[in-house]
Design goal:
single chain, alpha+beta, 2,3-Dihydroxybiphenyl 1,2-Dioxygenase, domain 1, NADH Oxidase, four-stranded mixed beta sheet, 9 helices, 12 strands, about 30% helix, elongated, binds flavin mononucleotide
């Protein structure tokens, strides 16, 4: 489910050029006399008519504060204010006018925001998080994440995986020290989640477990929560400490929390051309 905000324009080509080239929107759909644009998950369209809608304001928000400055440098001739920090809303923002005089706001939220990353945005921008805000995660949020994570595929749809929240400070410290620097993020997070595959239910615990864990990581990010896959947790002492049967496969214990720095810097990836190979 989604939605589209439509506006009337008398200069469809000029408007299309402004929003694609200067605001960096994609064209989502071309219709007879309308163009629908996309910015993240914001869909908005312009239809060629004999008058122009200029009421309201189009706000575009970005992940980085510095993007607001970069956008300001590009949009300076149309800007009506310089970038400023707005204490009331905890945002960094400036305003500009589009070629038909509509008000456009460019902003960055100076706090984590939930539930806007979807689809390609979610796949591309999820990052491993190793430092967290000192903000608790309530049970309702954990419930929402698991509600999404449970849609992970599994062999024969046996659904062998389960999730164990860890909030105890002592347990988090112990887990954080277990793999030295590799598991330290667990100790820094307000909570952790053990992701386990029940080997009585599946013959493919590693595959089922990995895909369930990745589903969990993506679901958490969708709700604004950072995680980090911590490897090499499938040890008897770890499982005993967590009360998990030693025969079960402990896929990972991930820290879970609101990232202290947002966004977490992207890591490099190989080019698609490098990993798309011809079959022999
Ligand atoms: C199987 C696996 C094991 C990992 N183990 C650890 C770990 O023990 N500690 C850690 O900090 N990160 C760990 N990571 C996270 C990776 O370092 C991270 O995914 C990678 O650097 C890419 O960064 P990104 O997740 O931000 O895109 C692990 C990831 C995977 C998939």
């Amino acid at each position: 489910m989604s939605g589209i905000l439509f506006m009337k324009t008398q200069q469809p080509d000029v408007i299309k050029q402004f929003y694609t080239e200067q605001i960096h929107c994609d064209i989502w759909l071309e219709q007879a006399d309308c163009t629908i644009l996309k910015h993240g998950n914001f869909l908005f369209g312009f239809c060629h008519r004999d008058r122009t809608d200029t009421e309201g304001m189009l706000t575009f928000f970005f992940r980085r504060r510095q993007t607001v400055d970069e956008m300001y440098a590009e949009l300076k001739p149309m800007a009506v204010s310089e970038p400023v920090y707005n204490e009331k809303y905890r945002i960094y923002q400036f305003f500009a006018r589009d070629p038909e005089n509509r008000m456009v706001e460019i902003q960055w939220f100076d706090h984590p925001v939930a539930q806007y990353a979807d689809g390609a945005d979610l796949l591309k921008h999820r990052r491993s998080t190793r430092d967290f805000l000192d903000a608790e995660i309530n049970d309702a949020t954990v419930q929402k994440v698991v509600e999404l994570a449970r849609w992970a595929p599994s062999a024969y749809n046996r659904q062998p995986c389960y999730y164990v929240p860890i909030r105890s400070r002592d347990l988090k410290s112990w887990l954080g020290a277990r793999l030295e620097t590799a598991s330290e993020p667990i100790d820094r997070a307000p909570m952790a989640m053990a992701i386990v595959a029940d080997t009585d239910i599946t013959k493919h615990p590693e595959q089922d477990g990995s895909i369930a864990a990745y589903h969990f990581l993506l679901a958490a990010w969708h709700f604004g929560l950072g995680t980090c896959w911590i490897g090499s947790m499938n040890h008897d002492d770890v499982k005993e400490k967590l009360g998990i049967p030693t025969s079960h496969y402990l896929v990972t214990v991930t820290p879970v929390g609101y990232p202290s720095e947002y966004p977490v810097e992207p890591t490099d990836r190989k080019a698609a051309s490098e990993i798309l190979k011809e079959a022999r």
